[in-house]
Amino acid sequence: MKEKEYTRDEVIEMLKHIAEKLKTQNIPRSTFLRETGISERRLQQLFDGSYNNLVIAAGLEPRFFPPKGEKLYSDEDLLDEVERVLRIPESKLSRLFFDQNAKVSSSVCDRRFGGWINTLKIIAKRFDVSNDKEIFIRIKEYTGANDITKPLIENNEIENEEYKDENEEYHGSNVDSSNIYGDFINFRGLQHAPVNEQGVVFLFGMICREIGYVVEIVRQGFPDCEAKRKIVNKPGKWQKVRIEFEFQSRSFRSHGHDPNMCDLIVCWENNWKECPIEVIELQDVIKKLAVSV
Questions:
Q1: Contact 19, 58 (CB under 8 A)
Q2: What is the pTM of this model?
Q3: Number of Cα atoms under 13 Å in the Cβ half of residue 229
């Protein structure tokens, strides 16, 4: 099928529309191409080989990249930009939110600080816990890191059981997190309970058909999965559902996910009573399945 030959003005209006929809002046090239379906070839033809020419023509904020071997931004400049974006009202910790609102790409942070998670761990130490406790907690939950909180605990700046060192709950020497198993559940081919999101994905895959779901795709990025489920009391009818996997349901919030873009959280433990969307708690589901066998 021949590609539609969009005009220059049509492409500019497309970018403006995306910026208005996403409520940001920074639209990455990858986002624009994905949203419009326009080919890279056509984009280069219309804007002299430069996506920034399109951005400028649409009145948005372009991104500038330094010559090879040179740094346009210092480490402090990058961290200042990360902090600025995180302080935006109702900000999210996701890479997508940063790319939509920052003047630089998250990939720059990846290269400079060893990944997006490491970037967040570094930036967490910039926040004053007494004034920025909420965002500090979200970063801690998002990264799964205890080390960023230890100096604060020693200074008694946080008094919250959420920050208790997980190793204190185990006897003996320090426990390597890669050598920790869940409690014994002996559920079919799975001997131990999940201890992370990957375990939740595996367990859901074991039982999804049994509880009325058929998986279409599991992917990186939000939401994790697209599936279909049987509609109760309507034999032969199925409903499309967008699924996000979490070890604990509350992580959905701390990860900055949009409830409007997801239909269902599948988790091991449901610890979010006010969750605005449906939750499947697998530890409860497998108890019922074990009894039914």
A1: yes
A2: 0.47
A3: 17
